[in-house]
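Model: You mentioned two targets. I'll fold them one after the other.
Researcher: Yes, keep them separate.
Model: Target one:
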Amino acid sequence: MKRSATSLIISTFMLCTVGATSQIQAADTLAKIKSSGKIVIGHRESSDPISYVVAGKPVGYAVDICNQFANDIKKELKMPGLKVEYKAVTSSTRIPELLAGNIDMECGTTTNSKQRQEQVGFSTNYYATEVRMAVKASSGIKSLADLNGKAVVTTQGTTSDKYIKMNEKGQALNIQNIYGKDHSDSFAMMASGRAAAFVMDDNILAGLVAKSSTPKAFAIVGPVLSSEPYGIMLAKGDTKFKAIADRTVNNLWKTGQMDALYKKWFLSPIPPKNTNLNMPQSSSYKKLKAHPTDAGI
């Protein structure tokens, strides 16, 4: 009996030690990068103009920010020859890919939420979006009440779904919620008439409308359902890596370079069609610019 208790204590100690060691190793992203000789950036494929792909190359507002972060990592490690690789992720795969160590950071349209903070970490926020809805301009839909009895789409694995449900409950609306596998799929469902509206972050909606074959056929309408911050998604508890990410983002805010990036991606012609979104900074964005923070919602 005594021997069994002792064995149990030793076994428990070993398990805790191994578990703690694994967490430390998993959180030391700088050591992983130094050992592998490369930085792996997770990006989106159709989150224009934040993070998307043009001619096989990741581009966008967040991609530019993370490329600067990668440069700062090279300086920190004194390894200017570090390779930078890119790996596409979706709303459903972004967190699993980070937890598995397949990407070192995710640079896209990921809301910094308290729920996600239970699994991952975030840098200082680099963008603040406002959730609204895209509809066909000819639909006559202007408000949430106009959605009663209709299907509404959002992208699987995003936070927008909860705002549909919250408003459905609050206004006793009869709404059928359906889901696209990614933003392009969700937009296609709305454009084809399978859904009456696509509820999502306004910047994503603006990008999808702009690159559609008939931009004037769509409109972004309705109230602001939520204001949500985006940050670079990182391994949870990796304080050294987060410190570099925070320094990168804070410096972009402080020096005005973030304003220049905003102008480049939201107020100027962007690839692939040289379309100008003409999307002025929202009140949520201006509030973040005045007081940058890593706080989640």
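Model: Target two:
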Amino acid sequence: MIRALMIALLLAAPAMAQERLKVSAVAYPLAWMAEGIGGDLVEVTFPVPADADPAFWRPNIAAIAAFQQSDVILLNGAGFADWTAKASLPRRALTDTSAGITDRLIETEAITHSHGDDDPHSHAATATFLWLDPAMAQAQADAVHHALSRRMSAGQETLDAGHAEVTASLTALTAQAEAIAASHGGTRLLASHPRYQYLARAARLEVTAVSWASDAVPDADQIAELSALQQQTGAAIMLWEETPPDAAIEAVAALGLTSVLVPTLANRPETGDYATVLAEALARLSAALAE
């Protein structure tokens, strides 16, 4: 009996030793990368509510506690989720996924505004939505792979295979962006929000943004501002990060602008994932540019 029990314990030892790594992410694309790379070896937490903007979300005590208990905390860097610089988080767990590509970050002008009843906030002087350029996302995925590998004592083959699958998805997205650049590079577009800097660079597009709430109908002053920008740029396409009200689509259509939904994916989409949603958005954008 004792011998049988010892054999059973020995057989169970690898499973007991390799507990799932606890990973927390401040932006959904980083959670997608961790899930894709780590698979069943990781337990990924992305606690931002569906109706919140991860860039400006402020976690409650319970959410901060979840981050503090993580083995790996994936940061976006570039000033995204600046609460992480003020909270007490374990240094050993922190991974800044853009630390190796700071020379490729895009500097912007700070813009202060508010959405509805929310407090005013500023879009930082560094563009933060890196993952909208699949090549930048690849660098972040590489950093995620390295962070998970460094913290795990086993399962490297699983991590390598997951990393290869994530890389394949990002390579396909890069090809889509490069195809847009080859056919429509230099085209001028307008956008409802200043979040497309990295996508614009990847596809060689020139995007001028206003700062509208996607769930609101623009007022007369906003339409006048947009009309002036449309006349200055000659743009024929308006990018939206969320589906706007029909009245908003009609208002910009009256200016000769075609609305194209390109989610910025900071938060988890209702359907699909980072790769499928961005692929669909790039396909829509390519089709609109070809018209």
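Researcher: Noted. Anything on target two?
Model: Residues 2 and 155 are 31 Å apart (CA to CA).
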